[in-house]
Write a structure and sequence with these properties.
Elements lengths: L2 H23 L4 H5 L9 H19 L29 H19 L4 H5 L1 E5 L5 E5 H25 L25
Antiparallel strand pairs: 1-2
Helix pairs in contact: 1-4, 1-6, 3-4, 3-6
Length: 185
């Protein structure tokens, strides 16, 4: 799998997992969703919020690249989070709608990326204002890995609440080369 295909697969996996994760979270009542369970961001809601915050921070950074100005333009008016736990939405339905918009943006953006875009360098400042310059492809791998890391925490929090997410592996979206091709109408 080449780098472009990998980025697109990760964007698809991100969207697919978030749809499942938010549907599972919606089965919990307010108290269970907001109960501090000792996770990095306290509760399941805090963890889901953090992923949205971090995605927003990174997408706004990526949006400064010339090749991303058009595709990521919807983020221009999105306020930059002041902290990694800054509240983005007041409740799960609002956070779900926001997540869905971000995921659509991520998959649309991934579909436009070229190898030259992945080879670009991104100068940015971290949340403490410390400047850095890194390769875009490497940063995208961090971006998707961060999502997966915290979704793993979220699935643990769901499990602790009695909600079984089932299998969550990327492997589920990778075609088995031994399977016959699926005919499309």
């Amino acid at each position: 799998m080449d780098r472009i295909a990998h980025v697109r697969a990760m964007a698809h996996y991100n969207r697919w997992m978030n749809e499942r994760l938010y549907a599972a979270a919606a089965t919990l009542d307010h108290d269970a969703l907001h109960a501090d369970r000792g996770a990095f961001f306290g509760s399941l809601f805090g963890t889901l919020n953090h992923i949205v915050v971090a995605d927003t921070v990174w997408l706004k950074r990526f949006a400064t690249l010339p090749a991303c100005l058009t595709t990521l333009a919807p983020l221009r008016d999105e306020p930059q989070p002041a902290a990694l736990d800054a509240p983005r939405c007041p409740n799960l339905p609002a956070l779900t709608a926001h997540r869905e918009k971000l995921d659509a943006l991520i998959t649309d953006w991934a579909s436009t990326l070229t190898d030259a875009d992945l080879d670009a360098v991104l100068p940015y400042q971290n949340m403490r204002g410390i400047p850095a310059t890194r390769n875009v492809f490497a940063l995208l791998m961090h971006f998707f890995n961060h999502q997966t890391h915290h979704r793993g925490q979220a699935t643990t929090l769901l499990s602790q609440s009695g909600v079984d997410m089932g299998a969550t592996d990327l492997l589920l979206l990778i075609p088995d080369l031994n399977d016959p091709p699926v005919a499309t109408p």
